[in-house]
Amino acid sequence: xxxxxxxxxxxxxxxxxxxxxxxxxxxxxxxxxxxxxxxxxxxxxxxxxxxxxxxxxxxxxxxxxxxxxxxxxxxxxxxxxxxxxxxxxxxxxxxxxxxxxxxxxxxxxxxxxxxxxxxxxxxxxxxxxxxxxxxxxxxxxxxxxxxxxxxxxxxxxxxxxxxxxxxxxxxxxxxxxxxxxxxxxxxxxxxxxxxxxxxxxxxxxxxxxxxxxxxxxxxxxxxxxxxxxxxxxxxxxxxxxxxxxxxxxxxxxxxxxxxxxxxxxxxxxxxxxxxxxxxxxxxxxxxxxxxxxxxxxxxxxxxxxxxxxxxxxxxxxxxxxxxxxxxxxxxxxxxxxxxxxxxxxxxxxxxxxxxxxxxxxxxxxxxxxxxxxxxxxxxxxxxxxxxxxxxxxxxxxxxxxxxxxxxxxxxxxxxxxxxxxxxxxxxxxxxxxxxxxxxxxxxxxxxxxxxxxxxxxxxxxxxxxxxxxxxxxxxxxxxxxxxxxxxxxxxxxxxxxxxxxxxxxxxxxxxxxxxxxxxxxxxxxxxxxxxxxxxxxxxxxxxxxxxxxxxxxxxxxxxxxxxxxxxxxxxxxxxxxx
Length: 578
Description:
The protein is α+β, with helices and mostly antiparallel strands. The chain is about 40% helix and about 20% strand.
């Protein structure tokens, strides 16, 4: 699952075949660390997506367009100035590094032909998109890296561009058998690790695949391999490098069931027991594999502020709740003070003046109790003191009982909002969650109190028996689904004891809902809840007409009584989403 140098070699080969000779027609910067180049060639129009996102750097040809900000960022404007209508003359990869050089020629303001280079570095958190002149001097970059951030290399306008050699790995395309065996055998580590730590562009996954193809145990120490084993390992290594030189790629995704687990620019034969899905295009593979992951990564970033608001409020309410529980526990001794007062009223005439305590029979329990006294007070005044303490603790108990209920409800609501943030898939979903937080008083509405238009819709699934199943993405949608969309005989599902979605199954007139649909709806309720990581989740289900919303209750909160329950897993891979 690594975007290694071999995968990049496959991307570069595809870009060479598709984009070289084409002209850059449009340049957009949809996100602070993304570029979308539209290139026109004799074969039509192509979009090149480039991301320097630290968590998910990517480069591939994409069929999809992305909306751009109304005002283009400075880096985008600079590229438009220099590269708009420029012709791509070459796309190269130095060695097997995770780097792509896009060479562009264009006319400057004087009409002279100039050469520029757009360099894409796919290096995890160090990923960047760097714009250089023909002498490899940096004109600008999508991320600036100063000497305060990196002591190895500055990426700033006016600085020379170079690739820092911090790993001291060799170029696998330039090695021979003698060098390979000497390098691998000298490494006191597992064989697969000796391969990927010695050569540029080879990921642990590809190193394990090489060992598998050679028929050796990749976990064995490289220094312990026999000469025959080394010959086999070099043979498969050499064959792979020859395929790279010839541009002979065969991208595949390996699946476990329906879940994609790994991808590579070559078939992963070690996954023979699983499904290998071939792709004719490495870009199509990357776009399919990373589309959802990229979207979720972006939503995570965009939801940071909302998560912080919810988490801060949740922590504050949990602290308040714990403090109130402690205060409530302190009020448990109130009845003792009432009894002390009564006993002093009953037996106080026999107390000697100046006594510090008094033993009396508790006629409620038939036990003797010792009542502490203040010597300077009379028995009646001591009794009044205890009655006053009782009254104060009683008032505190009554007040706290109500407040604790309110705080419990607030905590439950905030946890449900946190669960909604976890299942949000688009910006419109975040907008609706933000609206809920505004209505709940956690965020102040901007723009003169005008409510933004909400376009987020519930998830829609269809069961194997053809029943429509709807899943609320947040509390506002849960209320809408349950009390406005669902009719009385529709079935309602929710994970018991966990914040999560309301799930509605629309019944069919005159038909009894099949057991399989009940189970699929329950799986959806389990999956879209905070308990989804558990092996089994208990799910309550009941006809919608039995679900009620108490007056003044928080969004998403309901009550019901005569429900059914089932314990089920959260596997929804077999349920079709519309």
